């Protein structure tokens, strides 16, 4: 009975020491991505910046990553490049496009094409009466004596409108395609526990 209490007290003291500030070093898996607000990557990790590493010096990590992030597969392999990028889970969610490890996509800016803009039209204020002024201010489009600029039937029109009145609008500039974000550092574990499948 005395022996049991000694072992229990020793175990409790050990747990108390861990909980009281002497936290054990956290174990990370080899190839795991960790994020932090620091301006460097901790020892045993490397910045996830797409760098090429030597296979001979990092055989265990290469066995996990292969060449899906770059490298020639003979002497070098690549790390994931998360600089200015968001991470995305692999696989295919319901109704979503399948994604695989190492795939990159998306763009920081986007320029819309005509095909991407929703279909729309503009109403034309007009009258079937003959026009009585050349001043467009406060007036409506009217029929002319010699040329029809609009029709109330399906007949084709026979007047080309002034180019300035039907000129393209917009500047063909790209727009920002980013959600709100906060930048932190992404590091990949290069020295850690080799992950088992089970």
From TrEMBL:
Residues 1-25 form the signal peptide. The lineage of its organism: Bacteria, Pseudomonadati, Pseudomonadota, Alphaproteobacteria, Parvularculales. Keywords: Signal. Coiled coil: none annotated. InterPro entries: Gp10_C (IPR053827), Phage_tail_collar_dom (IPR011083), Phage_tail_collar_dom_sf (IPR037053). Residues 89-112 are annotated as: Disordered. This is Phage tail protein. It comes from the Bacteria. Residues 31-86 form the Phage tail collar domain. Residues 88-184 form the Baseplate structural protein Gp10 C-terminal domain.
């Amino acid at each position: 009975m005395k022996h049991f209490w000694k072992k229990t007290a020793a175990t409790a003291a050990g747990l108390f020491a861990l909980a009281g500030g002497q936290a054990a070093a956290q174990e990370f898996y080899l190839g795991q991505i960790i994020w932090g607000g620091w301006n460097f990557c901790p020892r045993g990790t490397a910045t996830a910046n797409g760098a090429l590493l030597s296979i001979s010096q990092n055989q265990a990590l290469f066995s996990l990553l292969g060449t899906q992030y770059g490298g020639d597969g003979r002497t070098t392999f690549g790390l994931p490049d998360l600089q200015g990028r968001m991470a995305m889970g692999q696989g295919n969610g319901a109704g979503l496009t399948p994604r695989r490890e190492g795939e990159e996509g998306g763009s920081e800016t986007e320029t819309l094409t005509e095909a991407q803009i929703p279909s729309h039209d503009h109403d034309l204020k007009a009258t079937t009466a003959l026009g009585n002024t050349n001043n467009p201010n406060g007036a409506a489009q009217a029929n002319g004596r010699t040329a029809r600029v609009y029709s109330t039937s399906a007949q084709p029109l026979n007047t080309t409108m002034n180019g300035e009145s039907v000129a393209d609008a917009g500047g063909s500039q790209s727009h920002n395609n980013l959600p709100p974000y906060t930048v932190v550092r992404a590091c990949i574990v290069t020295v850690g526990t080799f992950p088992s499948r089970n």
